[in-house]
């Protein structure tokens, strides 16, 4: 199995202890896929600072293919996290650093490279919305993480171009999540829409049916990356079943449980997947 994380990378700086950890939706997908036994690549842009070099070094150490990545002079993507009343809270970020001034623009050789993969995953933080129609023509299943920054206008723009959409829905009641997922799928044509709800688990709308997955509870060390790890394991499990978009109910439920199990393991690691470095 060969998958690609496309777009954002950051270092998550834990300000209260002066440690930084590699991460970002696209990077996390690639790393988690590698941990689960897939061949994984990442295509994004690194800053030339120590933060960017650290993310790049770690990906190379883990065996994630970064051969198509770019670099640009300046700050790597960075988020700032504080400990507030026992909870880790994001208190700021630099909007992707060099990715702002040097957004990813793909050429014919990039698109040819992407065709080799069985799945591509990207996010709202990757800045490639305008290139989604071209990505759609590649014939490779495409997932998109909208995080919790989506609104209906944004979903209307993005979702018709992707196969599987992720929405962070932790602040919504379950009935409202169900209504939103069904609407997105029916109005915009996604095969699947996955709403993550924090400690309440995740709700999937897939081929006209709802699936609720409760979390596998552990005493967490750090919940950063739990949603990304859940999604990655879920997707890989679906892919192993054959045609991901036509999986029977039993396979979908099995894949969701695999996601919950892997997310629980991720919660036992500092940062999204470890590799902290003092700064």
UniProtKB/TrEMBL annotation:
Domain Carbohydrate kinase PfkB: 20-272
Key words, A-Z: Kinase, Transferase
Protein's recorded name: PfkB family carbohydrate kinase
Pfam families the UniProt entry points to: PfkB
Gene Ontology molecular functions: kinase activity
Keyword tRNA-binding annotated: no
InterPro entries: PfkB_Carbo_kinase, PfkB_dom, Ribokinase-like
Keyword Kinase listed: yes
Stated family: Belongs to the carbohydrate kinase PfkB family.
Organism lineage: Bacteria, Bacillati, Bacillota, Bacilli, Bacillales
